[in-house]
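Issue: ligand-bound run for arginine - logging full I/O for the record.

Environment: standard queue, default settings, no custom constraints.

Inputs:
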Amino acid sequence: GSLVWDDVVLTAAHCQGAPFDSGVLVGPYILNTLSSDAEFIDVQRQVPHHSYDSITEAYDFMLVKLENPVINPNLMPIAVNSLKENPMSNDVLTVIGFGTLLEGSSNWSNQLQEVNVNYIDYETCDSLYNGDIVDSVMLCAGVPGGGKDSCQGYSGGPIFDQQGTQIGVVSWGLGLARENFPGVYSLVSGARVLIDATLSHIS
Ligand code: ARG
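Outputs:
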């Protein structure tokens, strides 16, 4: 997930449940490791998007309300894109997360990983995925030939532009880093009204 308010984390609805039951570690670079710049905060509640559809994965968003706001001023919330315009085709986006590094592998990296991928426009991606991309709530990103992608375990994490504004949430993909099967992300601009409404309600 990503911190979007001092006491709210934005993540994926399909991550709902156990991963958030105990609490959230905000700011670690090493998985499950409480360093001096990370804080462990209990979770008050999980609010999945009311339109989340686990078959199509449309509206794969969830807000997680923390019991307390972060204290460390270095743990700053990320800006969340509110512009209806999507990124431009081929714009560089950065995705970060913890998880596996290869399709089919069960080796998890404990180090926070980061990779740059290119935005792929809706029409191109929807034809690659045979019509499974839900316009206005999903976006795709990958590189020609494959080989760079978010991976298993990255779900719920942010993909952001070169200004550091969050554009999407890691959601799904066919395999990992396959040619012509880019990563699919929930498009935050498609849920911005709901995110704002929920934020003002719960935070
Ligand atoms: N669903 C996966 C997770 O729960 C993320 C998969 C992302 N797939 C991709 N090809 N980018 O961690």
